[in-house]
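Example 9 (inverse folding). The structure is encoded as follows.
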């Protein structure tokens, strides 16, 4: 059943859990996500990120994503992840996506406000929900090592963590001026594979939640413990983007299969199915955590 992000977020807010948002950069990954959601009996968000457009253009994968979502036994939102321009967001909406994320977090604050407000006005006129990002969520090799002001490579343009993490009062102003439906916040997580254990400011989630009434989103959850995920959820996170470990699970399964074959012939058509099954099981485990069932 194809739904908007808003519909999934309403249930998550009411019941106090987080909905998983899983990137689908090919047919096997999108099938893995939907099958996992159906087996777990929960709604899910199917992402396609602009960074993955070189792997499969949105206009080619969108019809498949939308059709699979419509035929799913559970609610499925089809969401553009990290759209980098208003034009990309409009293209996603025209392709049938029910939710878009415009990521202007790298620009100055007023530009972020202006462009987010513009896409909200357009998206809302056609019943599509909008996510934005406030603060700076780095890749894992350029992330913050601690919340005490220690800096790593990539942060030389920032004086302290207060310049990087989402400020609660600024979040309130941003939501009021843009009308955004969900907000991705920065509190210490980072995208990608972690080189060092992240140090989180989980209390910041509560402070932001007290100021605004839209669902809060976590990006960059790789490397977190079950307890950290679930504390973030209890403090107010309602959508969690998840991709790295899912993709690694698929790659690991394929690698192990090839190594086990020795000199036996390997047919390529077997490999995507092996990866899909491993990704599905990984997604199911993530859903358990996000649903507070672990």
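The amino acid assigned to each position is listed next.
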């Amino acid at each position: 059943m194809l739904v908007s992000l808003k519909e999934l977020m309403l249930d998550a807010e009411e019941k106090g859990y987080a909905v998983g948002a899983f990137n689908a950069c090919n047919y096997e990954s999108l099938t893995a996500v939907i099958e996992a959601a159906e087996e777990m009996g929960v709604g899910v968000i199917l992402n396609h990120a602009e960074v993955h457009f070189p792997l499969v253009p949105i206009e080619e994968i969108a019809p498949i994503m939308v059709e699979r979502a419509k035929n799913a036994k559970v609610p499925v939102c089809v969401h553009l992840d990290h759209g980098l321009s208003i034009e990309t967001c409009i293209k996603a909406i025209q392709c049938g996506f029910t939710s878009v994320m415009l990521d202007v977090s790298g620009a100055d604050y007023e530009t972020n406000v202006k462009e987010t407000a513009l896409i909200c006005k357009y998206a809302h006129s056609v019943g599509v929900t909008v996510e934005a990002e406030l603060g700076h969520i780095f890749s894992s090799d350029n992330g913050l090592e601690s919340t005490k002001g220690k800096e790593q490579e990539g942060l030389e343009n920032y004086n302290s963590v207060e310049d990087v993490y989402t400020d609660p009062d600024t979040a309130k102003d941003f939501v009021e001026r843009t009308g955004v439906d969900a907000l991705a916040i920065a509190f210490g997580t980072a995208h990608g594979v972690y080189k060092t254990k992240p140090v989180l400011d989980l209390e910041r989630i509560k402070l932001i939640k007290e100021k605004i009434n839209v669902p809060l989103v976590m990006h960059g959850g790789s490397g977190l413990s079950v307890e950290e995920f679930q504390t973030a959820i209890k403090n107010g996170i309602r959508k969690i983007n998840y991709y790295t470990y899912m993709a690694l699970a698929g790659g690991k399964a394929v690698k192990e299969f090839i190594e086990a074959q020795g000199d036996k012939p390997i047919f390529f058509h077997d490999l995507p199915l092996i990866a899909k099954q491993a990704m599905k099981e990984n997604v199911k485990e993530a859903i358990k955590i996000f649903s507070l069932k672990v």
